[in-house]
Design a protein that fits this description.
The structure is a single chain. Among the domains are: 159 residues, Potassium Channel Kv1.1, Chain A; 122 residues. It contains 26 helices and 3 strands. It has a 3-stranded mixed sheet with strand order 2-1-3. A hairpin with a 2-residue loop joins strand 1 and strand 2. The longest helix has 25 residues. The protein is elongated, with a radius of gyration of 41 Å. Pathway: Protein modification; protein ubiquitination.
Length: 612
């Protein structure tokens, strides 16, 4: 029977031509996939148990056409089977042994049909050649996963994975691979490139097998990172205008990402923070499970001291115009996790002996983390959709010990107030309440005193603390044993001469230059105070000033509030003195030590002081 035959390769055509050139005409046509083969029943039935069952028996002679479905490797594999049945020589290689083994299993080419059949030949090659070398095992695994589920039926995938894990990691002899001082096992480029091209389920099985034999830590992290970069590199996760994928493709990417996160090593510092941030952005973009995202946030919290600003700028999943541009909640959870880890490390230091504590304690990176979070606040402050509660919630979470000065926080507050001009007085006070005015530098104080966006109370606090700082006597006039930052000046902001290496103090400026400099600072503060009064003429007026006493002196109350120091050298005008009394009343840091009783407005005569 003559049939139309389609051939997928020149080798298949040569095989068919050779069969037709034999003396005996073909008596059966076999259809495999899109190809037809005119063959003979006898050589096929002698080695293929599957074909023997179909052509034997009483009606076997009438069978002239067969269609083989589910053939592993399709027509390409069947072409090699025909050559084997007809005794045509061909080479079994690591590239085709998986296909031949699965095809032989499907056609039941076992030893029961004929000794030395294709099943036995392929098994011998696998054991003696393919799985005896790392290159052969990796190649066989790559081809075997293309034949699933037939390759799993003959346990070919599992045997290839075990061979790879044994040859890359040894037979369980690398449990101490990541001990202190042990070098990490190197990852070879060629087999890493081959393994990272596997399907995610096969790659997961390889990683689990290798981990069981001691392949973990940095080496395992490198493999996972290479796989993630290959499989997720086409995701466009930046910006709001992101192209949505097809639902099927998005599901596949989501499964890949969740599997990668589940494989990440538990050891600290095996993955970079930048890589973890990339995974978190992809997790938000692909809408993975909550457990997957929280796992990545926990890992980032453990290494927050190594992060940079770009690692925290994680785009939000909310649609444009409906929320913030960046995921502030995720960063807040990361910072909270970092503080929790730091607290546990601190308790561990106090509850263990010195040797163990020194080895277990992480480096003190709370300072850099504080600066990083202030930079993050300044970056997100310009977002018009950022509510006050989110800004203040994140700012208040930054620990006090991580903020050596408040210049970074003041910068973030200034940017936020500029981007949100419609805030009420109460909201602006709440925003400024996260800043400690005592820790502002002189430059920041000078800027804040003229900043129209700050509420009046905040400016008053800035001026008050700056005035107290100016009243501090120089070190040469300070009492012996008194702290150099007495009078309210922050130790982080003040400058004091330090002893030289030979024990002698550095030479201080002359007393005349120091006095002129102090007078200049006082005049500048008086000018700022006058500008403040002109800027807020409608503010609440202070209590009535005490009447002038005889001799032009003005009396002060004898409450617990300490009177402001006199100006030196006669500098300063009468306007500044009145404003400083208002400042003292508005200042929230000065309280009546007696517990809030009424302040006497008319002090006794023996407690009067003069104002020059």
């Amino acid at each position: 029977m003559q049939t139309d035959t389609q051939f997928s390769s020149a080798a298949m055509k040569r095989t068919s031509d050779w069969i037709r050139s034999q003396e005996f005409p073909s008596d059966i046509t076999i259809q495999v996939g899109g190809s037809s083969f005119n063959l003979h029943k006898l050589p096929l039935a002698s080695k293929c148990g599957y074909i023997r069952k179909l052509v034997s028996g009483a009606n076997g002679s009438r069978v002239t056409h067969l269609e083989i479905t589910g053939m592993p490797g399709d027509a390409k594999a069947f072409d090699l089977v025909i050559k084997f049945c007809y005794g045509v020589n061909f080479e079994i290689t690591a590239d085709n042994v998986a296909m031949l083994r699965c095809a032989a299993e499907h056609l039941e080419m076992t030893e029961e049909c004929k000794p030395g059949n294709l099943v036995g030949r392929t098994e011998a090659y696998l054991e003696e050649v393919a799985l005896a070398s790392l290159e052969g095992a990796v190649t066989a695994l790559r081809r075997a996963e293309e034949l699933l589920p037939a390759s799993d039926k003959v346990q070919l995938i599992g045997r290839c994975i075990d061979a790879i894990a044994t040859m890359t990691c040894g037979d369980g002899g690398h449990e101490g691979l990541d001990d202190v001082g042990a070098p990490p096992k190197p990852v070879d480029d060629w087999w890493a490139d081959e393994l990272t091209a596997l399907r995610i389920d096969t790659f997961q099985r390889v990683m689990i097998a290798m981990k069981a034999r001691g392949f973990k830590g940095i080496a395992m992290g490198t493999m996972i990172m290479l796989y993630a970069q290959k499989s997720l590199r086409r995701l466009d996760m930046n910006g709001r205008e992101r192209k949505k994928m097809e639902p099927r493709q998005e599901h596949e990417k989501r499964v890949v990402l969740e599997t990668i996160v589940s494989l990440l090593p538990r050891e600290k510092n095996t993955m970079s923070v930048s890589f973890l941030s990339m995974l978190l952005r992809a997790a938000i973009y692909l809408d993975t499970s909550l457990a997957c995202r929280l796992d990545l946030e926990t890992r980032m919290a453990a290494q927050l001291g190594q992060a940079v600003l770009d690692d925290l700028l994680i785009p939000s999943s909310s649609p444009e115009g409906a929320g913030t541009a960046y995921d502030v909640d995720a960063v807040q959870r990361i910072l909270a996790g970092y503080l929790e880890n730091e607290g546990e490390a601190t308790r561990l230091d106090y509850n263990t002996d010195d040797d163990f504590a020194s080895a277990a304690s992480p480096p003190n990176d709370v300072g850099p983390v504080g600066k990083l979070m202030e930079s993050y606040l300044a970056e997100i402050s310009s977002d018009v959709n950022l509510p006050v509660d989110k800004f203040t919630g994140l700012a208040e979470l930054i620990p006090e010990r991580a903020r050596f000065n408040e210049d970074g926080m003041y910068r973030a507050i200034d940017i936020y107030l500029k981007a949100h001009p419609s805030l009420g007085e109460g909201e602006r006070k709440k925003v400024c309440g996260v800043m400690d005015c005592q820790k502002l530098s002189r430059e920041a104080c000078a800027h804040a005193a003229q900043n129209d966006r700050l509420p009046v109370q905040t400016v008053v606090q800035v001026l008050y603390h700056e005035q107290r700082r100016l009243r501090v006597p120089p070190p040469s006039q300070a009492p012996s044993g008194a702290p150099s930052y007495a009078g309210g000046e922050s130790p982080a902001l003040s400058y004091r001469p330090t002893p030289s290496f030979n024990g002698r103090e550095r030479s201080a400026p002359s007393s005349e230059v120091s006095r002129l400099q102090r007078e200049n600072d006082e005049l500048r503060m008086e000018l700022l105070q006058m500008k403040m009064r002109l800027r807020d003429p409608s503010g609440a007026a202070p209590a009535a000033a005490p009447p002038l006493a005889a001799g032009g002196t003005r009396s002060f109350p004898t409450s617990g509030k300490p009177p402001l120091p006199k100006k030196q050298g006669g500098s300063g005008g009468g306007g500044g003195g009145g404003f400083m009394k208002k400042l003292g009343r508005l200042n929230p840091f000065v309280r009546d030590p007696l517990g809030g009783g009424k302040v006497r407005t008319k002090p006794p005569k023996d407690r009067r002081h003069s104002i020059s």
